[in-house]
TrEMBL record:
It comes from the Eukaryota. Pfam families: Beta-prop_KIB1-4. InterPro entries: KIB1-4_b-propeller (IPR005174). This is KIB1-4 beta-propeller domain-containing protein. It comes from Eutrema salsugineum. Residues 65-190 form the KIB1-4 beta-propeller domain.
Amino acid sequence: MSRLLSKLSPLMRKSRSVRSFSSYETGPYLSLCVSAKPLPESGNVGEVVLFDPAKEELLELTDKTIPEEIVLANGIGASKGWGIFCDPQDRCVLISDFMNPWSCKSNPKLFTLPPLTPLPSCQTDVVWNVAMSTCPDEDEDWVVGIKSLGDQLSFCRPRRDLRWTKITTPFDHFPTSNLMYSKRDGKFYLPGPGGHHLLSYDLLHLDKK
């Protein structure tokens, strides 16, 4: 019997939204669902269903190997063609390219990051969005940024330091702001509502500017 994997966070499920991601080869896709079934020998294989809004077409990726760690994980976002998930048991963050149409069917890449934990008076159970500085396999100094609903930002440089740098945003202007990354500036940005405030986080120092 197939196991259906939801690629939506609890907040996104309530609003019936979907996650989007893109790669350098294609425009953005919307991830609709993933079905997986265990193989007799070991592992999981399944089908990924995507929607291409530019062509208004469904794209079905069949016979995709799905990492065991992902099967029961919750989807929390996507960036640059990679899906970002959270293990519901230990809160570890998982990053994989298995939903990317251009990734290897039989050998998807998987990176495991430390558990995502909240600062005092903050929460990390509901993730608002995720941004990465580059694809994990393209830059040794790749950075992952996670914006939780509320005041917390979490950054990790997996190949340099397997710890989260956790920051609280000032004031109460940014609970639902989208974290984004500028390749030109080498910084993460967090714009406030109406464009009245803009926070920047330097890629080299991750100091608030």
